[in-house]
Amino acid sequence: MAPGVRRIPVTEDGLTATLFLPAGNGPFPGLLDLWGGGGPLVEYRAALLASNGIASMALNYLTPKTTMETGKMVDNQYFEKAYKFLQQHPQICDSRIAMLGLSLGSAFTLKMAVYSQVMKLRCAVCIGGSHVQPVDGSVEQVLDYMNKNAEKTRFSENNEMIWRDLLLPIPTDPSFKVDVGRLQCPLMLVVSEDDQNWPTSESAKDMKEMMEQAGNSHLLTILSYPNAGHLIEPPYTPHVRISMFRTVGTLEKMMALWGGRTVEHSRAQEDAWKKILIFLRENLYSSTNPGAATLSHL
Length: 298
Hints:
Elements: E1 6-10, E2 17-21, E3 28-34, H1 44-51, E4 55-59, H2 65-70, H3 76-88, E5 92-102, H4 104-115, E6 123-127, H5 139-148, E7 154-155, E8 161-162, E9 187-192, H6 200-214, E10 220-225, E11 242-246, E12 253-257, H7 262-285
Parallel strand pairs: 3-4, 3-5, 5-6, 6-9, 9-10
Antiparallel strand pairs: 1-2, 2-4, 7-8, 11-12
């Protein structure tokens, strides 16, 4: 957190979240930040974004208080409530709100960006994720869809779990992938070419083809990094090729293979963070939505 950034816990309307406001009075552009499948509230990226002038709210959607109390996972309205909270905040500009999703969080970012009648996003960023999911599915249904494909799990020669095949091959059935051809806001995809957790390269290729066929590919920016592994994080976050991991709702720990090589992955994190910030600033601060071509000068 930069000097002056304010950290504000959010519990209104059943939300479990933390809002980070930049120094000053605003109004600021806003962003809804979704982490991946690890479960708890993860705040560091939202704090960094606020330090760069964007009011950002880290949202717990897998283990929020309401889920822990009732045992029921949240539905898509939960994300809309979070968006409305940002939209109604007196220090946030209600027409300049973005969404950023990492890993599993990118699945819901894409879904809400395309289908929500409430969320009018200025732009979206998806890091290490996929559009493959039941279109009408809630959080629970999306997770169930992946669990049903558990037999596709592979193991490395060192018995490390590889999950990238769970969503492969990319389905042709449109009911099992977000129709990105309907997307109306700029989208940035951050792709790791050695991602062993999600089929990010294959998903990005399919999304590009879908958007080209629909005539909205001008909204798409793809950052693709050879030899980078899953979880492209902000700069100087350590590269972890293999780690212990526990899926949400289970007590079982396992060794997961994320992929990537340290030097290439680390350089990807530096490059991607710089370009994500440029993309967000150009789409959140400008009077128009310039689309994907805004990074061409880089």
